[in-house]
Amino acid sequence: MLDRAGIDISMIQQAVGPTAKALASARRAGVQIVYLKMGFKSDLSDLGASDSVNRVRHLEGFKVGQTIRAPDGRESRILIRDNWDTDIVSELTPQIDDVVVYKHRFSGFYDTELDATLKRLKAKHLIFKRLHHERMCGVNH
After folding, report:
1. Residue among 5, 45, 36, 11 at smallest CA distance from 129
2. How far apart are the C-alpha atoms of 21 and 6, rounded to whole Å?
């Protein structure tokens, strides 16, 4: 999606190795891993109201929902849950005990299962490893 939008994804690619090392270290230390995946429902009902910034940005700028071909030839849709382009790169594939939560806004807490998941896990501390997606997309917070 980002590459198709003309955004340099080299920073993302460069983050894979260090992220894999951080995950391995965390697992060795017994840290519960929780992944946040950006992805929308297939009917785009979680994209926001017709005039919402989120909807406009994703539909116009990133062509969310548009049908594309995955590198392996499969049909996929841009940023739609459980399609090729919402897969986690193979070097960072979640393991059996990891938790994966979908999000549809920049915040991982807005309208997601993250809070309930963290409470169920009795999490007391959080460690974040994130890419600066907002900076690449021109979003300032």
Report:
1. 36
2. 29
Structure tokens at 59: 């539909």
In a domain, 140, yes or no: no
| Mean of pLDDT values over 114-140 | 72
Say if 44 falls within a structural domain.
yes
Whole-model pTM? Answer: 0.80
Instruction: Please give the structure tokens belonging to residue 43.
Output: 């009917």
CATH number of the domain encompassing residue 48:
3.40.50.850
**CA 85, CA 1: separation in Å to the nearest integer?**
8
- The pLDDT tens digits of the residues spanning 48-105 come to 999 998 899 888 888 899 999 988 898 999 999 998 889 899 999 999 999 999 999 9
In percent, the amount of the chain with pLDDT more than 90 equals: 57
What domain range is 50 assigned to? Answer: 10-131
- Residue burial 75-92, b: 16+ Cβ < 10 Å; e: rest: ebbbbbeebbbbeeeeeb
